[in-house]
Amino acid sequence: MTMRNKILILFLLLLTSCELPFDLTKLGDRDMLKLYCEVVSGDTTVLDLDVLVPVGYHERTPSQVGVEDVVMTVDGKEVGIKVAADDDPNLDPGTLYVKERFPVGSEICVKACVEGADPIEAKTIMPLQLDDYRMEMQLTDIVSGSYYGNDVRDMVKARLILPEIAEGTYIGIQYVVSSKADSSGVTIYDDQYLQAVYDVTEFSSDGNLVSGVDFSNLVPMGNTGIYVWNGTDSYEFLFRHLTDSVSEWKDENGETVTWSSDYHFKFRIFALSEEYYQYHSRTTNGFFELGMASPSYTYTNVHGGTGMFGAISVAETPWMDDDMFGSDRNEGKEEK
Fold first, then answer.
1. 332 Cβ contact list (under 8 Å, min separation 6)
2. How far apart are CA 164 and CA 30, in angstroms?
3. Boundaries of every domain in the chain
4. What Å distances lie between residue 84 and 63, 98, 264, CA to CA?
């Protein structure tokens, strides 16, 4: 066989394709209920219930879950489920919700059933309400960067002090920044956003950021913006404190332009139920925004279906500013 014929045969093989018929309907025809619910320490809890249609029957219209299909109990006593009205300013029309404050330690259970799907049941325990806490903060000498050749030392070491009753509870924290920028008296930017916090082990003794280390004491929990301490009862962390600033310069017309930045910050402190922690620590990762997160069904406590039924309680510090650290940059303060 000549080389020409060999190349021709290889080319023809590349053009060929093979088919393997696969009937998706054989995977099953039963719908599945998906429940996602965060029982909160406030007075309104939303029940997000959907019917999932099998992939082989994707053209089928899924059933709708009504208030008559769901039962919620607290320590065995049924609570009323409401439906959001069209003019409700806080909820989408038709949303199922409960107007109830749940006692710490209470067992909360949800059951639901619709035609064509298996019934579901899920339980969780209302975690501790973190009312009795203190937070210590100390501005450090850690160099976080440089600005026009000058070292920037804006890292604050903080420690959360909790009562003994919190032992064994999953504790998380969010760092919230309020940022406002004015240009010659005109507000350009005014918003709130979440900032990262750092495990104290992420920095060496000389203040350098350590990379490539598996930090297990304080880790981000999926895409929630909550950082959770795991395997430690020393609730320490570092955060970058943004300071207020005012700058002036001349524009092309010789007019003085003034730019001012005003920052405030606060913390949200969370107590998480076992189910909430397990779901969010397993279902997403650092590649979430790239669409490379783990599947949402790697963990579920919804028996007979999928999703998550968990509980969280939250406490917030007041808004704080530069004067939090006093006139002496090394002076620490405690905040309730």
1. 136, 137, 138, 139, 325
2. 48
3. 24-125, 134-272+314-335
4. 19, 10, 35
**Cβ atoms of 210 and 203 closer than 8 Å:** yes
- What backbone phi and psi angles, to 5 degrees, belong to 225? 80, 5
Q: Supply φ then ψ for residue 201, to 5 degrees.
A: -75, -5
For residue 232, give the amino acid letter: T
207 DSSP 8-state letter: S
Task: Find where tokens 């495990």 sit.
Answer: 199
CB atoms within 10 A of CB 65: 22
Task: Name 316's Cβ contacts closer than 8 Å, sequence gap at least 6.
Answer: 266, 267, 268, 269
Q: Two tokens at 321?
A: 């500013």
Interatomic CA distance for residues 36 and 300, integer angstroms: 10
Amino acid at 9: I
Q: Decide: helix, strand or coil at residue 276.
A: helix
CATH number for the region 24-125 comes to 2.60.40
For the chain, state the CA radius of gyration. Answer: 27
SS3 293: coil
* Tokens standing for residue 19: 């088919």
What pLDDT digit, counting tens, does each position of 15-49 carry? 665 666 666 666 677 889 999 999 988 889 999 99
- What does residue 94 show for φ and ψ, rounded to 5 degrees? 85, -5
Instruction: Please tell me the predicted confidence (pLDDT) of residue 178.
Output: 93
Query: Cβ contacts of residue 159 below 8 Å, gap of 6+?
Result: 135, 136, 234, 235, 236, 237
Q: What is the pTM of this model?
A: 0.78
Q: Which two tokens stand for residue 166?
A: 């919190």
Dist CA 263 CA 276 (whole Å): 32
pLDDT at 61: 80
